[in-house]
Fold this sequence. Notes:
By secondary structure, the protein is α/β, with parallel strands linked by helices. It is globular, with a radius of gyration of 18 Å. The chain has helices at residues 16-25, 41-46, 48-61, 81-100, 118-135, 156-165, 176-179, 185-188, 219-228, 253-267, and strands at 3-7, 30-34, 65-71, 105-108, 142-146, 170-174, 195-200, 234-237. Helix 5 links the parallel strand 4 and strand 5 (142-146). It contains ten helices and eight strands. Helix 4 (81-100) crosses helix 5 (118-135). It has one domain: TIM Barrel.
Amino acid sequence: MLKIACHAWGFNNLPLRDAVATVARLGFRYIDLGTGPHLDLAIAAQKPLEAADRINLLLSEFDLAVTDLYLMMPYINAPDAERRERQLKLFESLIPFAEALNTPGITVSPGIVHSDGPEHSLARAIPALQRMIDLTEDRDLRVSFELHMDSSITLPEQAHTVLMAVPGLSLTLDIAHLVVQGLHWGSIADLLEYTAHVQVRQASKGHLQTTFENGTINLAEIVEDLEAIDYHGAISVEYMTTIGWHGTQKVDIPREIVKTRDIILMARTPV
């Protein structure tokens, strides 16, 4: 059965304990975690097992399991080689932390667009992502990149190029980042065969986040297509507090999470 998770980023205004408790109270058994106020990567890298133990105790208390760990490292494709290397070394040092959290996978950004432009930024992202695959090749840990706004990969054709160039790499598909650009599901669905993790929230052209009533994403259709390809990953409900970013609107996050969750539950085929 399709696993339904909730991203803790929806509650970045709360301490981690309260965010985890809120996700559990909303009826979820799975949670996504990521860089931000809930997770300091430098601390996790220094003492990965201790950092993971603290989070695992909290997750156990609320009967939650991690479905994805998002490591936001936007300079893996920086023009400066030393800066790229520092980010990749940080990624390497966080592998034990990810394994100790028992996450099935890590999501990373393909790096932002830097001052020398999108083509150079994309070109440097490819060897960086290959390095991440090499670092995890002997681990039971998938590595996915997220196609997202302001990054070196924002369009399906760019994602295809990178996926073909880096064997073993998969995609975390945040559908809203394509819908905000005016793309429709028909031009997005081809990415599903490479997708290991899915993130959803309501969005529309020009609005990376909006209310359920104003959104244009057909969640039932997405669930149907995921089940049709025998998708084994999770679908994570991810609302954000980054108001204004690419038209991200302020919404009642618990309300929107519940509405999104319920549509997925109704669309999911019961076992």
